[in-house]
Design brief:
Radius of gyration: 22 Å
Largest sheet: none
Order of helices and strands: HHHHHHH
Helix content: 55-70%
Shape: elongated
Structural class: mainly alpha
Distance between the termini: 54 Å
Number of strands: 0
Length: 133
């Protein structure tokens, strides 16, 4: 019987060694180490290729981790620490967080007009049957 060769995972290994590994990624790596390695290569490509400077990369990483669709506190903390260590002014980090917070604005832009409409319907006594689900 041929023993299956363990896939090479230098990027994931380096992330672990540098303390950049999210423990929530471990099950992914255990299920498919090769796919996880490719995913991490893709995510780190903008920084590793030099297309983005480290400060810009950290600011973008803060935005991604702080976004309403992600909300990953440990990543926000890690990237803020790195940004500060790289000399990013706190005002720039605050600006990124303020811009990122606008993602939640869609909640209001969707729901506020519905609320206004339903308030008017309620005022007029125009009720529609509300179905579950």
């Amino acid at each position: 019987m041929d023993a299956q060769k363990e896939p090479s995972t230098p990027i994931c290994d380096a992330m672990r060694a540098a303390g950049q590994w999210n423990r929530n990624w471990q099950p992914m790596a255990e299920l498919d180490a090769e796919w996880t390695e490719k995913f991490m290569a893709m995510v780190s490509a903008p920084l590793n290729s030099g297309v983005l400077d480290p400060k810009t990369f950290e600011l973008l990483a803060i935005a991604v981790d702080a976004s309403v669709t992600h909300m990953y506190g440990p990543g926000v903390r890690r990237h803020i620490r790195r940004a500060l260590a790289l000399g990013v002014p706190s005002e720039q980090i605050v600006a990124v967080l303020q811009l990122t917070s606008t993602l939640g604005l869609h909640t209001m832009s969707l729901a506020a007009p519905i609320l206004v409409e339903e308030m008017e319907n309620h005022r007029r006594g125009l009720f529609t049957e509300v179905s579950e689900g």
